[in-house]
Amino acid sequence: MVIKRYQREQMAHIWSDQNKYQAWLDVEIAVDRAWNKLGVIPDQDLQNIVEHASFKVEDILAMEKVTKHDVVAFTRTISQSLGAEKKWVHFGVTSTDVVDTAYGYLLKQANDILRQDLQDLADVVAQKARQYKQTVMIGRTHGVHAEPTTFGLVLANWYSEIKRHQERFEHAAAGVEAGKISGAVGTFANISPQAEALVCQELGLRAQEISTQVLPRDLHAEYIMTLALIAAGIERFALEIRHLQRTEVREVEEFFAPGQKGSSAMPHKRNPIGSENVTGLARVIKGHVFTALEDIELWHERDISHSSAERIILPDTTELLDYMLHRFTKIVQELTVFPEKMEADLQVTHGLIYSQRVMLKLIKTGLSREAAYDIVQPLTAQVWQKHLDFRQLLDNDDQVTERLSKQDLDDAFDYRWHLRHVDEIFQRVGLE
């Protein structure tokens, strides 16, 4: 199970033994209420069950040592708190009716937290994107300087991805927020579809249209895969921060609090530990996808090969993602940004980042693309090899100057050309 270091209290409570068994009891009582509405359980018996059914976690665990079956241990412990009405506990249902429906109920609780986590991150990223909308920086491909962009566009890209995560999350969450009260092999032999509908309505779940003894596990696989996609997205964002915090770059930096220490050996160190932390946790979550996919293939109407795995991956994935979202939201919120360094880094390659604009201007004069490319590239090679100024080489090249004026080259070297559609992009993303 997730260690406390990576748990937040609210999410950890959802997956506690106390809350799990309470969810089981809520399902059992919902079943009895359904039986009562269908005329099977007398009003007084239902009232006694609602008022007196109770448990202690330690009693259930002690009983399980005898029964070797957790649900039987649970129902027998509940029965000990009741009188004659205990005969209605677990009436007409099978273990997985309770466990799977309770999973849906617990995941619904977890999803409420994750949904808010995602929105909190979206809000912070949106605010930062607007703040740095026109903050020019170098765009990089393959880790190499390419052409100018803005830090706001980097963040707007994150925001757009978060919106996709929210859409996928809602679909996957609806899939697992399901219940099944259909009996041993899903035929409703000992309980009715009407009872299932009543139970799910009371718990705020949807009734799965068809099930075996278990809910279809493709629902849970899709859910884990969706959470893993969100984790991978956070890892992508965190990787950008880690790159931009490198000493050679230092265009952004995670907030470094007074008294914080970056290294036990080197007092000067300021490391992107938060971004590295969520990167590692994302790897754990992505590993759960394989397990979730393997859990789809069960024998016939049911086996329990998925059960042990889900006791780990469902709590762990939701808890870790909750922690990751919360921590990364704070990282973005407190991020230190150095706009002057971003602008200064545009000059690192001595003007090479404007090579495409020069080439395109040459093409517009009538040259073929190949000819224009072959004029510009040898000059860029001199810049790389000798650290010369690209603009000066262009000004001294007859093939260039006979086609392009000083004004043409001034325009080619104006970074603002690359930012002229920023407003439109922000509108498309939904940030205006």
From TrEMBL:
<dbReference type="GO" id="GO:0006189">
    <property type="term" value="P:'de novo' IMP biosynthetic process"/>
</dbReference>
<comment type="pathway">
    <text>Purine metabolism; AMP biosynthesis via de novo pathway; AMP from IMP: step 2/2.</text>
</comment>
<dbReference type="InterPro" id="IPR008948">
    <property type="entry name" value="L-Aspartase-like"/>
</dbReference>
<comment type="pathway">
    <text>Purine metabolism; IMP biosynthesis via de novo pathway; 5-amino-1-(5-phospho-D-ribosyl)imidazole-4-carboxamide from 5-amino-1-(5-phospho-D-ribosyl)imidazole-4-carboxylate: step 2/2.</text>
</comment>
<dbReference type="GO" id="GO:0004018">
    <property type="term" value="F:N6-(1,2-dicarboxyethyl)AMP AMP-lyase (fumarate-forming) activity"/>
</dbReference>
<dbReference type="GO" id="GO:0044208">
    <property type="term" value="P:'de novo' AMP biosynthetic process"/>
</dbReference>
<dbReference type="GO" id="GO:0005829">
    <property type="term" value="C:cytosol"/>
</dbReference>
<dbReference type="InterPro" id="IPR022761">
    <property type="entry name" value="Fumarate_lyase_N"/>
</dbReference>
<dbReference type="InterPro" id="IPR004769">
    <property type="entry name" value="Pur_lyase"/>
</dbReference>
<keyword id="KW-0658">Purine biosynthesis</keyword>
<dbReference type="InterPro" id="IPR019468">
    <property type="entry name" value="AdenyloSucc_lyase_C"/>
</dbReference>
<dbReference type="GO" id="GO:0070626">
    <property type="term" value="F:(S)-2-(5-amino-1-(5-phospho-D-ribosyl)imidazole-4-carboxamido) succinate lyase (fumarate-forming) activity"/>
</dbReference>
<feature type="domain" description="Adenylosuccinate lyase C-terminal">
    <location>
        <begin position="350"/>
        <end position="430"/>
    </location>
</feature>
<dbReference type="InterPro" id="IPR024083">
    <property type="entry name" value="Fumarase/histidase_N"/>
</dbReference>
<dbReference type="InterPro" id="IPR020557">
    <property type="entry name" value="Fumarate_lyase_CS"/>
</dbReference>
<keyword id="KW-0456">Lyase</keyword>
<dbReference type="Pfam" id="PF10397">
    <property type="entry name" value="ADSL_C"/>
</dbReference>
<comment type="similarity">
    <text>Belongs to the lyase 1 family. Adenylosuccinate lyase subfamily.</text>
</comment>
<protein>
    <recommendedName>
        <fullName>Adenylosuccinate lyase</fullName>
        <ecNumber>4.3.2.2</ecNumber>
    </recommendedName>
</protein>
<dbReference type="InterPro" id="IPR000362">
    <property type="entry name" value="Fumarate_lyase_fam"/>
</dbReference>
<dbReference type="Pfam" id="PF00206">
    <property type="entry name" value="Lyase_1"/>
</dbReference>
